Amino acid sequence: MALLKVTDLSVNYGVIQAVKKVNFEVNTGEIVTLIGANGAGKTTILKTISGLLRPSGGTITYEDQEIQKYKSQKIVAAGISQVPEGRHIFPGLTVVENLQMGAFLRKDRDGIKTDFDMVFDRFPVLKERRNQDAATLSGGEQQMLAMGRALMAKPKLILLDEPSMGLAPIFINEIFDIIRVIQQQGTTVLLIEQNAAKALAIADRGYVLQTGNILMSGTGKELLANNDVQKAYLGG
Amino acid sequence: MQTVLQQLVNGLSLGSIYALLALGYTMVYGIIKLINFAHGDIYMLGAFWGYYVIHQWHFSFWPALLSAMVFCALAGVIIEYLAYRPLRNSPRIAALITAIGVSFLLENGMSYLFSSNVRSFPQVMDVKSYNLFGIKVSNIQVLILVVSIVLMILLQLIIRRTKMGKAMRAVSVDPDAAQLIGINIDRTISFTFALGSALAGAAGVMIGLYYNSIDPLMGMTPGIKAFVAAVLGGIGLIPGAALGGFVIGILETATQALGFSAFKDAVVYVVLIIILLVRPAGILGKNIKEKV
Ligand SMILES: Nc1ncnc2c1ncn2[C@@H]1O[C@H](COP(=O)(O)OP(=O)(O)OP(=O)(O)O)[C@@H](O)[C@H]1O
Ligand SMILES: [Mg+2]
């Protein structure tokens, strides 16, 4: 069953149409990836799902409700959390405070405590640095903090915008491992990546986006094996 | 020595008024990067509210102070909603010019409604002067200082401890990230205006009591001085605004004590020019380093 269904979605910046009648869906329990070059419209799509941008056309359906007019806080409350491109952790707040902010809308103290343990369990480095100013973390650690913060909202669907961007290879592998674990523990994942090889390798399904249009879709394996995809995105 | 201490006492009570006002400037700037030029006029509204409830309804000091805070909080929220919110995504200069417009509207509107005459503020309490080791301290001065400090502590607690306070901090450092964790930006901005305006309302009532006179243009000069105080401390920084307020207050009284009364306002502008030249981030401000 489709948890998220995007239908004929168009998004404009002024007169520029960045996303043009895009259609895709994410089923409960899947990892779905959207791959595409710089400027393809990936971030724009995620921002629109999260309610930071308003579409100029089309619908976004989540759990059978149209959410494209919802305010961002209502979307978070409904169970969609985003880890934005560039991480956007809160500098000046400690690691723990950043994670607490992730649970901003929650009132179940016990549940929050459990999830704190779960996040620290999954990202031991965050536990070590729990009282450190988040701005002093390395890029990879900040990425983990941003993911941890999103998980603190206990989302049903997590949107990841280029989580591997700018990271050293060893961190990249760790991040992709964690994405798998997140899925296994029951959170559905919509993953945006330029690292198409890695993203398609863990994804159940993928879509290829080019200048605001969906060009192709298929299972992760199919797209990995596809000649055009290989030429354009896998350097081969 | 005695004169120095005497001026310090005078400077502290005046400075705490500037500090209360500067906090409003700095909070609003911190959250929507707007220099709210109408902020000094909110303080004037607070003073007029105090005048009316004491005069007409025979409120005593505390109810007058508290009701002025509530009244000004509402006024601040309404002004933000009507004047600034529609311009949220416009160029910053548009909001800035609107703020100047709101300021004129409040000043001239009040002059029209209540005449531009200076009126004497009803004295709700007897002024008592104490003489401590040759320094004259009035009960009003002590009251202003104590009330201001209590309000600043309360503000700090609200910002550090409450959910709304945390939302304010989050929105001021990163509005997009704040939205992505479910913070309601509109409500957070309204709350910020309410807090800042309430402090201005308290300052207005207290200054009425201290100087014993109010008029519709009374907010202009203190407004500018408080703005300089906020810049001096580091705009956007709460402790900076408090510190800057006290520094400006003491500087002003010191200038007067040295016999340069005519220059007491000019000194503040000189301070502004000096900070902008040598330390634009303010006393407590850090030069911002971006982490990539
Ligand atoms: N705020 C904006 N104003 C105007 N145009 C924008 C804005 N943000 C993005 N665009 C344009 O919209 C298009 C899509 O941008 P978007 O950020 O969604 O791409 P992306 O696929 O996420 O790219 P990247 O891989 O570089 O992050 C680009 O042409 C971009 O220049
Ligand atoms: Mg992007």
Automatic annotation (TrEMBL), chain A:
Belongs to the ABC transporter superfamily. Residues 4-236 form the ABC transporter domain. Pfam families: ABC_tran (PF00005). Keywords: Amino-acid transport, ATP-binding, Nucleotide-binding, Transport. Transmembrane segments: none annotated. This is ABC transporter ATP-binding protein. The lineage of its organism: Bacteria, Bacillati, Bacillota, Bacilli, Lactobacillales. GO terms for molecular function: ATP binding. The keyword Transcription does not apply.
UniProtKB/TrEMBL annotation, chain B:
Belongs to the binding-protein-dependent transport system permease family. LivHM subfamily. The keyword Cell membrane applies. It comes from the Bacteria. It is a multi-pass membrane protein. It is found in: Cell membrane. The chain crosses the membrane at residues 12-32, 60-82, 94-114, 140-159, 189-211, 226-254, 266-285. It comes from Loigolactobacillus jiayinensis. Pfam families: BPD_transp_2. Keywords: Amino-acid transport, Cell inner membrane, Cell membrane, Membrane, Transmembrane, Transmembrane helix, Transport. This is Branched-chain amino acid ABC transporter permease.
